Amino acid sequence: MDALRSLGRVIVAFWILSHLSLLAYSSSPQDLQILNAERRIDLSSHIVKVFLTLKVENTGASPVSEVLLAFPPTQVDHIASLKAALTVGKKKRKSYVPLEVNPTDLPDAPNQTKYFSISLLNPLNAGETATLEVLYILTHSLEPFPAEINQAESQLVYYRDSAIILSPYYIKQQTTFIRTPSTKVESFTRVESTNRAGTEIKYGPYKDRPAYSYSPVIVHFENNKPFAVVEELVREVEISHWGNLQITEHYRLSHAGARHKGVFSR
């Protein structure tokens, strides 16, 4: 009996210590601020690639083990891939360490904001900084307008986003760059500190933006890239008795861009 009581006390003590450790490294959005954020949005194909660089600082008193990314509900459903890495070293000795990223929830999220959590390899202590590189890819985020075109017309599409990076943290300084496939841009939203040069539209720099700041923008531009979508893929793998391998793939493709109208001629 004494042995069982001792074992029980050890288990309880371990449980308490493990939960205290988790509490010590848990963080709230008020514990971090973003010193500098740079976002580059690539619209050169039918998928949208977003490169995000964040320099974060722990302004709280306790170590922080995660950094949150925020997305509007209209965008989160279109995320096909999301990766993050920690920048280590400088210049020629710079390297990138992959980090784990998982969806998460926050209570009372404003405007149905959705979140992903980046798990740091080592907790960020009070006063320390870290630079993160984030890449996420969006699909079905370019809307053809007009929805129908004839063979001689160029394909025009809309892209919607925000000039201000949506974040649960205060951002001290930030800039967003949007790159289009060509200089043929029908229109784009002009807000404070908007500039365009060639195929690039620049929003910012913006300073001292509070958490959850948002400034909707729309870019209407030419994009004649194929908008191929795989609606169904069936892969057949056949292995013979003699060890031969045969793989056959069946694709059902569709065009997700503007629909064709009128006469088609080669």
UniProtKB/TrEMBL annotation:
Subcellular location as annotated: Endoplasmic reticulum membrane
Domain of life: Eukaryota
Pfam families (UniProt xref): Ribophorin_I
InterPro entries: Ribophorin_I
Pathway(s) the chain acts in: Protein modification; protein glycosylation
Signal sequence residues: 1-26
Keywords recorded for this protein, A-Z: Endoplasmic reticulum, Membrane, Signal, Transmembrane, Transmembrane helix
Biological-process GO terms, alphabetical: protein N-linked glycosylation via asparagine
GO cellular component, one term: oligosaccharyltransferase complex
Principal location listed in the UniProt entry: endoplasmic reticulum
Topology term for the membrane: Single-pass type I membrane protein
The keyword Glycoprotein is annotated on this UniProt entry: no
Subunit comment: Component of the oligosaccharyltransferase (OST) complex.
Purpose: Subunit of the oligosaccharyl transferase (OST) complex that catalyzes the initial transfer of a defined glycan (Glc(3)Man(9)GlcNAc(2) in eukaryotes) from the lipid carrier dolichol-pyrophosphate to an asparagine residue within an Asn-X-Ser/Thr consensus motif in nascent polypeptide chains, the first step in protein N-glycosylation. N-glycosylation occurs cotranslationally and the complex associates with the Sec61 complex at the channel-forming translocon complex that mediates protein translocation across the endoplasmic reticulum (ER). All subunits are required for a maximal enzyme activity.
Family per similarity comment: Belongs to the OST1 family.
Protein's recorded name: Dolichyl-diphosphooligosaccharide--protein glycosyltransferase subunit 1
Organism: Prunus avium
